[in-house]
Amino acid sequence: MLDDQARWVAKAKTGDTLAFRRLVEMNTSALFRTCVRVTGDKAIAEDAMQEAFFNAFRHLREFDERAQFSTWLHRIGVNAALEQMRRRNRVEEELPAAENEAAVFPVTTESTPGPDRHARSAEIRRDIETQLSRMTVLERSAFLLRHNEGQSLEDISAQLSLNISACKQAIFRAVRKLRLALEPPG
Amino acid sequence: MNPITDDDLILFRYRDGLERARLAEIEHELSISPALRERYAAIERMLAEVDGQPEPLADADLGARLWRQLEPRLAQAGVVRTRMSWNSRWHALLESLRPQRLAWAGAFALMLAVGAGFYAGRQSAPAVDATSAADATALRVLDAYVAAHLRATEGVLVTASNSGSAALVDGNRELAASLVESNRLYALAATRAGNARLADFLHQLEPVLMSLANQADGGAVQSSEGLRDYLHATDLLFQVRATEARLDRNGDRRT
Predict the structure, then answer these.
(1) Tally of helices (H runs) and strands (E runs) in chain B
(2) Tens digit of each residue's pLDDT (9 = 90 or more) over B104-157
(3) Rounded to whole angstroms, how far apart are CA atoms A119 and A77?
(4) Do residue A121 and residue B77 have CB atoms under 8 angstroms apart?
(5) Which of B46-50, B91-95, B162-166 has the highest mean pLDDT?
(6) Across residues B51-56, what is the average pLDDT?
(7) Chain-centre distance of CA B155, in angstroms?
(8) Same domain, B158 and B224
(9) B43 and A175: CB-CB below 8 Å?
(10) In order of start, what are the domains of chain A with their CATH numbers?
């Protein structure tokens, strides 16, 4: 698959749009997931993908193939998604100042999931979704890129134009917000 | 040792953003402190809930939709090559022969083959034997193609009459649409080959294929009930299978 991508990249670099179309098809699902994670909105994600693929094709000659094409495209996708959110004024200009590092989870958190907890699982999923949508773009992006896509803090910081410390803080805040979705009622 | 905060535990969970010495301290503390283990378990439980969230799934046609918008932009921006290599043209040709178009292309090729067969037969005098050999070849090709077409049609009818699934109906609708065109061409080829019976039968199939190709969204259950009734009343499925078997037998006899 990856060798296959390299072959299509080489063809696409010569301006072959059909080869590039193959690359679009091969990377659509993964890029869509990333863009939805950053934007939290499928329609905006689609606009971002449009820009990402357009920019990728325009700058394909600059791609030096030291990284995988999918990794390179992923970065372009994250930038495009953030740009879409900026255009819609949904990206905060600055991150809030670091909060004190009080315990995120009280020690009294139930230690094993009981039947009530299982019964609440659908509700919990909805609550998590709500909390994710309430996060700032940077918090959600930093957290989901770290947690779901397994990217390093260093890479995430570079993509989000944050320093490492700010990137960590964004993740900590995201986790605190998610905690609200899981607090036992009452 | 600095107290271990929940933020430290989050970084520990990802094994990222902490010095190696700090990681070792946390690991050691976790092995001896039940309270810390409980806090860490709470973090892991919460993150496991996030893992349980459904993945955002792209529509099946998202890639094609993106490309439709992207292609004119690339052309407009002048970033595409204006002349394609032969290799690319070949890929373009393959791309154009997507499955739904293959049947149409096959039917067209068949028309040419049947026409050429009869023409060759008529041109090669005195050649009564040659004429019949050419005719037989053309008819064998026609039989084989139409039998394959009927097998695909049978699949579409069976799926449409048995399935209440919207996804299956969608796929079936596309397949039926691709069969309409080839059905017309096979009917024409059968007429030209003098096989009026086959041509009539294929004409009878056309409105069924067209109604399946135009099946409305969300009407899967009602449509399949209606189709079941129609198939039952007309024995159409049986006729499709019987014609298919007859064509297969004809092909065997002519070889």
Answers:
(1) 11, 0
(2) 555 666 666 666 655 555 554 444 455 566 667 777 788 888 888 898 888 888
(3) 37
(4) no
(5) B46-50
(6) 86
(7) 13
(8) yes
(9) yes
(10) 2-87 (1.10.1740.10), 115-182 (1.10.10.10)
- Nearest CB among B58, B79, B85 relative to A32 is that of B58
| pLDDT per residue as tens digits for the range B200-241 | 889 888 888 888 887 765 555 455 667 777 777 777 888 888
> A53 and B11: CB-CB below 8 Å?
no
A73: left (phi over 0), alpha (psi -120 to 50) or beta: alpha
Residue numbers in A near B35 (CB within 8 A): 107
Chain A residues with beta carbon closer than 8 angstroms to that of B95 = 18, 21
> What φ, ψ does residue B208 adopt, rounded to 5°?
-70, -45
Kindly state whether residues B128 and B231 are assigned to the same domain.
yes
- Note the residue count of chain A: 186
Q: A168 and B81 in contact by Cβ < 8 A?
A: no
**What residues in B contact A147, CB-CB < 8 Å?**
14, 47, 50
Q: Is the pLDDT of residue B169 over 60?
A: yes
Q: Indicate the Cα dihedral angle A159, A164, A166, A168, nearest 10°.
A: 100
CA of A99 to nearest chain B CA: how many angstroms apart? 11
In a domain, B72, yes or no: no
Q: How far is the C-alpha of B148 from the C-alpha of B239, rounded, in Å?
A: 15
Region B12-25 average pLDDT: 95
Q: What is the number of domains present in chain B?
A: 2
Lowest mean pLDDT among A104-118, A164-178, B235-249: A104-118
pLDDT at A83: 92
* B64-68, B101-105, B244-248: range with highest mean pLDDT: B64-68
Residue type, B251: G
Residue B44 lies in domain:
6-51
Chain B residues with CB-CB distance to A50 below 8 A? 66, 69-70
Search chain A and give the residue with CA nearest B81.
A15
